[in-house]
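assembly run, all chains below
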Amino acid sequence: MAIIVQKYGGTSVGDAERIRRVAARVVETYQTGNQVAVIVSAMGGETDGLVALARELGGAEPLAREYDVLLSTGEQKTIALLAMAIDQLGVPARSFTGIQAGIRTDGDHQRARILEIDSGRIQGVLDAGIVAVIAGFQGHDDDGNITTLGRGGSDTTAVAVAAAIGADVCEIYTDVDGIFTTDPRVVPNARKLERISYDEMIELASLGARVLQTRSARFAMRYKVPLHVRSSFHSETGTWVVSEEEVMERLVVSGVTYNRDEAKIRVPGVKDHPGVAARVFTPLSEAGIVVDMIIQNVSHDGTTDLTFSVAREGYERAMAIAQSAADEIGAAPVEGDTDIAKVSIVGLGMKDHAGVAAKMFQVLADEGINIQLISTSEIKVSVVIAERYTELAVRALHAAFVDDGAAEPTPEV
Amino acid sequence: MAIIVQKYGGTSVGDAERIRRVAARVVETYQTGNQVAVIVSAMGGETDGLVALARELGGAEPLAREYDVLLSTGEQKTIALLAMAIDQLGVPARSFTGIQAGIRTDGDHQRARILEIDSGRIQGVLDAGIVAVIAGFQGHDDDGNITTLGRGGSDTTAVAVAAAIGADVCEIYTDVDGIFTTDPRVVPNARKLERISYDEMIELASLGARVLQTRSARFAMRYKVPLHVRSSFHSETGTWVVSEEEVMERLVVSGVTYNRDEAKIRVPGVKDHPGVAARVFTPLSEAGIVVDMIIQNVSHDGTTDLTFSVAREGYERAMAIAQSAADEIGAAPVEGDTDIAKVSIVGLGMKDHAGVAAKMFQVLADEGINIQLISTSEIKVSVVIAERYTELAVRALHAAFVDDGAAEPTPEV
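ok done. output:
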């Protein structure tokens, strides 16, 4: 007998018919002799409706505490309905809100962090042969206030519950077949990965792959919860996300990702002496703007250029802050560019292979693509390029690094 | 400074605009220097949508526990939205679900009874100058399960909270102006009562007046919570429901009510010896069917007729049970009649006036209305008549007992 955690997102429980299908899948898993805990999101569209009501009655910044009280009703609806549907198939089920599931978080509304799960009640229900149906995305703080976890929160709930009850696997059901070597809409021969390490998953998620959020992948790594990302439409194996030693095939590059949601800001004519960079980046950080990549040119005539990238969402604010910093330090007017994309390659095997970055730059050069910014880690290389080259770059990198027989540099060199 | 509890039903919070209006009213009460706790229902229509989903996924009898988890999301939405709207008007507000408000009930889902309110958190919030916005209709049992109180549950929550925090008044906002001497749709010169006793309110509610449920009126009486039933559309005084000694004007008849939701069953040819009635009524009671009025004719040739009334809802089941009991005791085939109505007069002053029932019978006789069943208590007389005479009977009784100058019997005698 295994302990299995299953997580179904908003699309999978979008209407009564889909909830019935999820129920059938849960029952199938249960009837093959497993203990099953299910984590669900709000029905697709439900959250949007609640957010609209909150804006209408709560203005631009509705009370954070009440926003969570409101939003948490979404998953509460789903757990009750799914428990009913499972019961209709003859299998006992019981629902748990965040509070009932003992999901203790900090008090940071809308982006609360799980501190601990008091899983006694869930465990008791599972031991009694009952399916536990748990609301994702929500918890409670020490004062009994309802909190929500923010984006991708249901994945985090699933991983945290899996860790707390010592599950054998945490299955993340989604509308794709698993984790792919790249976006199949861009590269038709992208292939599904059998296994991938937590580290790679975290990089892929943070670099633009949308299947799983970085935070839940980190959580899974920390608690060594094996994840199985798979399709809710059929029962074929998806992609297992496991620890490094369980990954058989250490690919040099397991994935090519892209992200169009960034923008680039350049501060030219910055006097090249200590403390200048801090005067630009400190006010940005104080404003809550996360700077992704930074380069500083070689000094020329005692001045240099500072270039960095930020999320496109905060671009206008970042420009204003950078401009006022530039004025203060006597730099030239700042220049912004939103027509950029970040393209990255990720792979555990990079650790053992030298020259991966160099090969990447060559592949892009061969396509006539100019590289604007570069950032690397032990298992990834990211570059910022002009947005219009995104697909071209992804296809070229996938052909060069991932496709079978593509271990050699492309012949056009 | 007074402590004021206000309760708004589903119609009053039916959409964003109405929630804003309720918020304005709450803020007005708060700003005149009062502590305010508000109890709200689900937005009008919300509950119907949830019930439909439950039927779709949970079948004819959805899991009782999960049904409550589902339905309780309705009020949870309203409390969050109302708290936001109050905040937008510059007054601090905090929402409470049933669990957060400490509303402890028994575990009888869908018709739970409030056992106790641990009002410490509500009290703390009120003392801090914050408006408490509390979900009506819901509570939690000792195992932390969500429970709902059943019909009229939000009124009960309001009265219970008022009792727990020692409120000076519990205001029940509704779409009518108060409690009327009878249904104004039937008798245009029905008048609004200034004050009425708990006992009268309980009788009126149980006999068909729809403004307040019997259960909340009983609760108010037990804990001596003054109720003020008033309109949510204007700020004029409605009807105060208070203890008997606070009612100045002891009317012989303060209200005339009618109820078309009953049916009559007659078991003829019952042998007149001890224990026979029990063999009819025990199986009915075991089936959860509440019998309202019972008459047994004078015995004739050793047999008698048993006639009783039940809610029309359970009529078919009651007929089947009565028939099988009749077969067992060798009675004749049972006869049913759903075309009946119960018409009642209620008034504290009856205690001091003899002949009220006799006068009622005479008034009905004068209109040619035959009386089928009779039941009386210290402060009410009810009769069952053919349904088609309902309005005629109500008008005649209102004219004879309630209208000014109608203290004398009608002249047509």
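Chain A is about 35% helix and 25% strand.

The longest strand of chain A covers residues 262-271.

not gonna interpret more than that til we talk
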